[in-house]
Design a protein that fits this description.
This protein is α+β, with helices and mostly antiparallel strands. It is built from 12 helices and 50 strands. β42, α8 and β43 form a beta-alpha-beta unit. About 3% of the residues have low confidence.
């Protein structure tokens, strides 16, 4: 049953199985006859040429074209021109590994190709994806079921397992990292041998012996390893020296270098002066010839090149690795990606120092770090050409070629033919969502639900849904059958001509019936609340930009699309009339002002009810910002209070339970007393006085996890209403139609008795229900109950 409502005469109305029903008292459900006349002549299919929206990018080995993914399909485009070729077409079923080749020998670029041949390399009922050619092009590595690293030999079709995936966990698809060594004998991987959220760098033999050697072992987070200096070095990210997280939301990272030979380490540290006069290096006798995958760059006038790459067989010295590690970046930061030039003299990296990620460069020989390109992007990835002459950047859908000689930029543009069959795509998405849930739901028994049955039960709606609102609702209802939290789907609708009503940050007097709009209260951060303004509670807005304001609806219409614009308002206090020029703010800002207003009311009410003995803090979200605010309020304005009310009501979650519990569980063990004057104590960065937690039905996800942690560790009492058991970790996946998304609860939490916290309701120690008739009179019975309970406990001591 969905969307249950009740009429004044107690008739229920609800949705069930895609239909509407009513249920009178003592009656039986009756289906409501609904007839909708629709002019359904519009073409839902999309045929267009796209120049944006790419989600992945790979550069060809000859540096002439890039492959990219757009709306779930692979395209190729020339780096120098906008010529674009669609390589794949959407298909149903599981993810498999495919290879596409050019058929005509006189065609040298996919972007210009006319005939293509597609072949399935690996195909089974399991999920296989993230393929990577070996350096000689004779094998392909890939992931099976997201974490198992395997290799297939393209000639013999034999498959071997490199590692079984038992020490890794895939949270979101594509988050498992591996890279072939230049000689194809090894893999660098990112894996978590002891913890879901902390990774190390592993070295794995490509022959398939299954042994993983942990080569970082730092105890910090290590990841994104890349081979460098023809395999004698690797670079990777580590957060050892970065600014530590304050609320479980990540640290800043550095790029590090590890050297697999002493010679490479010593040479890297040499200055230009040290290198002068050294004899030229002789060719290594251990090199061997290997055909490259693309037979090197194809000559423009000739067919194929007879050139062959030479690949040095690596001899890795794993003894004393910890003594051959260098911190390459001069300061820690938020990093997205990094590459090092083939000669090892320059490091390029994406770092977020200001607004978004920018491209920075370190010249090791010159000992110089500088900003190369100001991007302001949301992140991205980097790759470097074989000759090191160009860096290729992908970020925020933008593809850029950057010259390492002069840092000049060239946008890689495309004009991709996009053909989307609406119903075919939605059928694919339905299958994808169903499979993802089946593969990744946090328990394999699917809560006892027959997931195959529900696939059939809901697929019947697919031919009849012609819009993404209803489609997302249908997916939500199907996912809801799992009786699990963090499920559901949504549609991100965006309308350029949508209503955006500006605000002045005022509380309206809804009882006022005269002409204009009467102000009942000014919010503290209202643009009207300035030193020069005469507006106050009781003032009436009579005109906007010289036009009469008749009533509230008229006022809202006149405020539409006016955010940030100067407007002339005419005010009246009943005696005088005056004008003021004001810039209204957005509704989003008004929401922030209303929240601040509510918190201040709670602080004042706690002060009044406790006679100044208790402090109050509200934990708005389980995130770093909220933690910092709570930390500041606890140890700042409330440091002199006897105890504190920690309010978590209406908190939607995040990841903060352990940090909050640690913060509130301090036990004083020493006082600092210089010359008989008490001047401090430890712990100084934790609350060491009593506390009590407020919670309600609106607590969700980690806002269930924190009260559970608080109670389990016996830090204090819980007051309020029961909280549904929703402590699972979710991945909200954006679908190939980027306006749609859905949630997968993937990581369950078990108590020390082995019981999942999901669907296990958390009961308060003191149950207090908010009564409607009391709340509307500006009384908070739950806050009153928490204050009363805390004062009672204090007075007992």
């Amino acid at each position: 049953v969905r969307f249950l409502t009740i009429s004044k005469n107690n008739v229920l109305c609800f949705g069930w199985d895609g239909e509407l029903y009513t249920l009178a008292p003592n009656g039986k459900p009756a289906k409501v006859a609904v007839n909708i006349l629709v002019d359904d002549r519009s073409n839902l299919n999309q045929n267009s040429r796209m120049s944006s929206g790419a989600t992945e990018m790979a550069v060809s080995s000859n540096g002439k074209e890039v492959a990219f993914v757009l709306r779930g399909d692979v395209y190729a485009t020339s780096i120098e021109h906008r010529i674009t070729k669609r390589i794949t077409n959407e298909r149903n079923g599981s993810w498999n590994i495919y290879e596409t080749k050019m058929v005509r020998t006189d065609e040298t670029m996919f972007a210009h190709s006319t005939q293509l041949k597609e072949e399935m390399i690996v195909g089974s009922a399991t999920e296989e994806f993230q393929p990577a050619y070996s350096p000689d092009g004779k094998e392909v590595a890939y992931l099976e079921e997201r974490t198992i690293l395997k290799v297939i030999n393209l000639e013999t079709k034999k498959i071997r397992t490199i590692h079984d995936g038992k020490q890794t966990y895939s949270y979101s698809d594509g988050d498992q990292y591996f890279q072939w060594s230049p000689d194809g004998k090894w893999f660098l991987i990112e894996y978590g041998p002891d913890h879901l959220f902390r990774t190390d760098v592993g070295l794995v033999d490509a022959s398939g012996n299954g042994k993983i050697t942990n080569i970082t072992q730092s105890g910090y987070s290590d990841g994104a390893p890349k081979w460098a200096l023809k395999g004698e070095m690797m670079i990777w990210f580590n957060d050892k020296y970065g600014m530590r997280s304050h609320g479980s939301w990540g640290s800043e990272f550095d790029v590090y270098g590890m050297f697999f030979t002493r010679e490479a380490f010593e040479k890297f540290k040499m200055t230009k002066e040290d290198q002068e006069g050294l004899p030229e290096e002789k060719k290594d006798d251990t090199t061997k010839s290997a055909d490259s995958k693309d037979k090197k760059d194809k000559d423009k006038d000739k067919g194929k090149s007879d050139k062959k790459d030479t690949v040095k067989v690596l001899t890795l010295d794993l003894n004393g690795l910890e003594d051959r590690i260098l911190r390459l970046t001069i300061n820690s930061s938020r990093l997205a990606d990094a590459v090092i030039t083939p000669d090892g003299e320059k490091l390029y990296y994406l770092s977020n120092f200001e607004k978004g990620f920018d491209l920075w460069m370190i010249d090791f020989k010159k000992k110089e770090t500088k900003l190369v390109v100001k991007l302001g992007s949301m992140g991205g990835s980097l790759s470097i050409g074989k000759d090191g002459k160009n860096i290729y950047l992908f970020g925020g859908g933008r593809m850029v070629k950057i010259s390492t000689a002069d840092n000049s930029q060239k946008d890689i543009s495309f004009e991709a033919p996009l053909e989307v069959n609406y119903f075919a795509e939605k059928n694919y998405i339905f299958e994808h969502v169903w499979r993802q849930i089946f593969k990744k739901f946090y328990v394999t028994d699917m809560h006892g639900v027959d997931w195959n049955y529900y696939k059939q039960a809901y697929s019947k709606f697919l031919p009849h849904i012609n819009n993404n609102y209803d489609y997302a609702e249908m997916l939500s209802e199907m996912l809801g059958e799992l009786n699990g939290s963090h499920t559901g789907s949504g549609y991100r609708h965006s309308a350029s001509d949508g209503t955006r009503t500006a605000t002045l940050g005022i509380i309206y007097d809804w009882a006022y019936t005269g002409q204009g709009v009467k102000i009942a209260e000014l919010m503290d951060k209202s643009p009207l609340n300035t030193s020069k303004s005469k507006v106050k509670a009781g003032t009436i807005i009579t005109k906007i930009d010289g036009e009469m304001v008749m009533h509230l609806n008229d006022y809202f219409n006149k405020m539409n699309m006016k955010t940030g614009l100067k407007m002339l308002f005419t005010f009246s206090d009943g005696k005088t009339t005056w004008e003021e020029v004001v810039k209204p703010e957005s509704i989003g800002m008004e929401g922030e002002w209303l929240y601040d207003r509510w918190v201040k009311l709670m602080i004042a009410e706690t002060e009044r009810l406790s006679g100044g003995r208790l402090g109050y803090v509200h934990v708005r979200g389980m995130d770093s910002y909220s933690f910092r605010q709570v930390f500041s309020d606890l140890l700042g304005k409330n440091v002199g209070k006897e105890a504190v009310i920690v309010d978590t009501r209406f908190n939607g979650g995040g990841w903060l339970h352990d940090d909050l519990a640690t913060l509130l569980s301090g036990k004083k063990y020493v006082d600092y007393v210089p010359r008989e004057q008490k001047m401090g104590y430890d712990p100084m960065s934790r609350w060491n006085k009593p506390s009590i937690v407020l919670m309600n039905e609106g607590n969700y996800s980690d806002a269930h996890g924190f009260p559970y942690t608080y109670k389990t560790l016996s830090i204090g009492k819980l007051v309020g209403m029961p909280v549904p058991g929703t402590m699972t970790a979710v991945w909200w996946e954006t679908l190939i139609d980027p306006s749609l998304y859905f949630g997968i609860p993937q990581v369950g939490s078990k108590d020390m008795n082995g019981n999942y916290l999901e669907n296990k309701q958390l009961e308060p120690d003191v149950k207090v229900r908010q009564n409607y008739d009391v709340v509307i009179k500006k009384r908070d019975e739950q806050l009153e109950g928490a204050v009363k309970e805390m004062l009672t406990d204090l007075d007992k001591k």
